[in-house]
Amino acid sequence: MDLLTVKHVTKQYVGHKALDDVSLAIPRGSVYGLLGPNGAGKTTLIRIINRITAPDSGQVFFGDRELAPADIYRIGYLPEERGLYKKMKVGEQAIFFARLKGLSRREAIARLKTWFSKFGITDWWDKKVEELSKGMAQKVQFIVTILHKPELLIFDEPFSGFDPINAELLKNEILALRDAGSTVIFSTHNMSSVEEICDHITLINKSHNILSGNVDEIRRQHGANIFEVAYRGDEEALRRAVADRCDWLDGSQSESVYRTVKLQMRNDADVRPVIAAANEAVELRSFHEIIPSMNDIFIKAVNGKL
Asked: Are residues 85 and 46 in the same domain?
């Protein structure tokens, strides 16, 4: 069952249509990538889901009913524009935000202490926010976002400003939250992150949903039937063996005794016969399909070349 469903949402500002008949469905217990170039409409959609603004037309459903004001307590939102009160102490500010989400002070402190320990920032509890580095401040905001255990988590560029070690820490926590039952909307421009953690994506461009689906299925769907072959033996023998079923794109001498070549199959059914023919002609080391990256797909889709 889908946790969140957006149906035919349109939002118009003065002289600009931010969203134009956008629909999508976010499966429960998944990490859902919300992608698009700057100005595409992602932030507007996130604001509508958070009830910060309302659509001009269309509906948003939380589970089996329309999104209601009380549902904001079931949502955790980490915006791209970070905001903490610089003069407050870190611990007191975290408690303040937790209380806004409905936690008692006692419960807030208990949960915060656990998360501060996990993220290695316990020593900063009584320091002022202005003393925090950017990365530490982001850890605090991440903790506050997830502290009340919301069903839906929305992260807008959560890895921005993090070094690789802390980005990996955050990625693992997001996946752990998903595995524990949370549903995550993940808005980013980092396509490698999409491949690592997203189960499904929607790509919005110029206010429209232009691509939605399972990440692995999308990548395979937009592949070009190109395979990379590593082999040892006579190149001409291999060329002759596969010539009637595929096109020879390029070849190169590898650092080892093996050579590599890219072959494009003319039909899906040709893969197994080509493997068999190649195996008879040369010593095969590997034979694998080259799947396009989400970065390649993103660029082609936005440029209308997908």
From this structure: yes
